[in-house]
Amino acid sequence: MLIGLDVGGTYTDAVLIDGRKIAEKMKVPTDNDNLLESLLHALDPLLEAAKGGNLERIVLSTTLITNLIATKSIGPTALVLIPGPGLNPYTYDYKTPLTFLLSGAIDYRGREIAPLDEKEIEACAQKIKQSGVARVAVVGKFSQRNKKHEQQVASYLQERIPGLTVAMGCRVSGRLNFPRRVYTTLLTLATQEKFHSFYSQALQIIERRGVSAPLYILKADGGTFSFALSEKKPVETIFSGPAASTLGGLALTPRGETSVIVDIGGTTTDLALILSGEPLLASKGARIDDKLTHVRAFATSSTAVGGDSSLRVKDDVLQIMPYRQGPAYCLGGEVPTPTDAMRVKGLTELGEQRQAYKAMELLGKKLGMGARQAADLVLKKTVERIASEIEAMFAAWEQEPAYRIWELRQRKEIRPQNLVGIGAASPALLPLLGKEMGCNALVPPDADVANAIGAALAKTNLRLSFHFDTARNFYYIEENGVQEKLTGVDSLASAEDFALDRLKDEGKKIGIPPQEEPELVYSELFNMVRGWRTEGRLIDVCVQFPTGIIDCWEEGDA
User: Fold this and answer.
1) I need a surface site. Which of 25, 112, 238, 333 has the fewest CB within 10 A?
2) How far apart are alpha carbons 295 and 285 in whole angstroms?
3) How many helices, marked H, and strands, marked E, lie in the chain?
4) Four-point Cα dihedral 387, 388, 393, 398, nearest 10
5) Which of the given ranges, 63-77, 187-201, 383-397, has the highest pLDDT on average?
6) What does each C-alpha distance from 539 to 497, 525, 526 come to in angstroms?
7) What residue segments make up the domains of the chain, in order of their start?
8) 410-452: pLDDT as tens digits
9) DSSP codes joined into one string, 344-409
């Protein structure tokens, strides 16, 4: 048995899956001031239903990190940069007032070309200590190929500032692109403490209930990881909600389908794309605010319109506001919402019909029309807003290499014509959205808890990208910042074997089943030539256990 939990902005969904069927499901309101309490209200009935069975794992999708970043609820952090030559660090605004630039440089192969200045480090340490800041991010260009400078600065700061927490860029990400590594390191450091507190409490409560099944967190790329890994990189969970809806849509539709997943919740509508049964990944990583990061994520989009969006009339024009002010009017709220319009039109049975009519009458008076006309207008505007967002998202999806390859395989330019609706408001709105866009509209069974289904069924995935330098007898791994001496690799074939073996070893540590087959994503070799002779080789290899849903469900008829 498997349990999946999705803590959304409006509702917390939970499912207990037993083999090929959903044995129990729950949907409870989310208390955004106490996510843990919402989690437990949804979880306890499932644990009761699972008694006597073999509970294999619990997977959690949470908005915690998303909310921390969106609301700027993160403490002050200092930033120490070692940018080296060729890059103007002032080009990038990380919105971190306490920023220090140090001399010193590492080149693209990991060789030190300029040492650090100890006087600069000392002055930096004094100012950080005087500021009282408790967290510092230290990031150097090409530190993923030689972490010497980052380690030296981090050690110096920790020795002289008691209680200081330091994050090094090389441990957060080993990928190229210095600005993205800086931003990803800052976000990791800023969210680590609150994430650790939330997850530790969740673990303790599960243990008190006598549950021995491991607890996993859903990542933005649709994979799962354990607490030991998630507390080191909490920012990897930034878009776990959209990832859950993507996998939920994948699980609830036939294998190999191409569809746009439309998750219409109470607060937002999340969009994702599945091409021939494969979720589309964002090739440049997740974008947070206006900056790209090194967080691997599905190519998703979220727009602030949902069943509980606040409605108002200004200058005789109906406006759908990008926020909610509590529940729908028909459910005891204070402002009209699209849910009230759905209730008036008989598209949902949520709430009291009399209160829904009252909400639409209030709007109608300001618009010069009756309640039913106002409801029609609300639904029309809501559907147009979502359709517009889908059209805008296609412009972004069509820039992704994987989409272009898929399009070439179709031998003609064609957009996916299936809209798959999940979320509480999808049964009411998706048929209208399909008609608006001229697409097939499908709302599968259990669409209301699809996010929780996606979380429960998510595979534990792992991708490792290796960079080998045979001349320096050195290699590093992008995803975890590992830098080690190299032996036994002198060709492309031996590098691929090394990478696959290492992936299998790392997979065992995080619970990937031994029957899971890893795959080679890409491999490239570049000869280093000096004086007409080959001096060494640079070899890049990427291997992975891919994202997806577990086989027991794939093979089933659910």
Assistant:
1) 112
2) 5
3) 16, 27
4) 90
5) 383-397
6) 13, 4, 6
7) 303-448, 462-553
8) 766 667 778 999 988 899 999 999 999 988 899 998 998 999 9
9) HTTS---S-HHHHHHHHHHHHHHHTS-HHHHHHHHHHHHHHHHHHHHHHHHHHHTTSHHHHHHHHH
